[in-house]
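Re: that chain you flagged

S.,

Sorry for the slow reply, it's been a week of failed gels. I finally had a moment to sit down with the sequence you sent. For the record, here it is as I used it:
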Amino acid sequence: MARPETGKIGTDDHPGAVAALREIGFWLERSRADTHRVRAYRRAADAVESLSPAAFDDHRGRKSWAELGGIGPKTAAVIIEAEQGELPASLAKLRDAATPLATGGDQLRPALRGDLHVHSDWSDGGSPLAEMMITARDLGHEYCAITDHSPRLKVARGLSAERLREQLAVVRDLGRELEPFVILQGIEVDILSDGSLDQEKDLLAELDVVVASVHSELRSDSESMTHRMVAAIANPRVNVLGHCTGRLIEGERGTRPESVFDAEVVFEACRQFNTAVEINSRPERRDPPMRLLKLAYEMGCLFSIDTDAHAPGQLDFLSYGCERAEQAGIEPDRILNTWPVDRLRDWCRTS
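Prediction finished late last night. Pasting the structure tokens below so you have them in one place:
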């Protein structure tokens, strides 16, 4: 069975041990495997990568990888096969089993140039920023935004102003290493109960893209939620309204009903203030629901198809969003992340 198009991922038949372990993690995340299975391979990759050259050669010579903490029989077998110049059997099996994630969206998916909503281990993501960006590049993206959470979301280790400034410096350095791939510095900023944003105004102005989302008091009445959302949408620093209903339809966290708000008022504000409506591609969200997605389209809104990825394998979830966008009849030019990066940046600065 043919593998889906994934840029460089899945094309190396002789990966080293670390690359093989990380690619296994990618395919497991993409298929929504149990978190503990994924972590086993990523822990093993970290353990191997941390070795000095001498220690690495010693373990390779003795095939003693299982002596290392974080490496078990399955991950040791992958390392041994990879270091013998073979394609590990478990990786070959995952590659062969990989199929397209969605049954539609085939026309739109190649038009997407990047992703505007991605998390790293700076907040509640499971992988380092560099690994997220390298994976995005290897998937064929031209650009990707890092949008870790803002400080109020303590459960997600949201970034204080000081930590966000530290991340800005890291992104600048990493961006130079990965050129011509472009890392966009962003944030997923909390919309507070009064509609204000959970980060310093001047700092938000330094960012390439701002996704604003409601994460608290999701059961507010319609009038309160509508005023709250419109106030944020009208803020000139907000570019994208994230997962607008906050619903959860499946997954480990259980289900959650949609927040209630006046959708016509909210989407008219998005149109008037040039704020894109996010098509959140996470399988447990698929937000907004189709009836609201079609309404936003009919009202003239712009859109951003995003993964809201918290792990490298989830960066391929864009296919789910493309499927839904095509079902709603949305033209590619109404979707921000089909645009070249210069056009996108200019729009974000002036929208």
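What I noticed first: Strands lie at 114-115, 143-146, 182-190, 209-213, 240-241, 276-280, 303-306.

Talk soon,
D.
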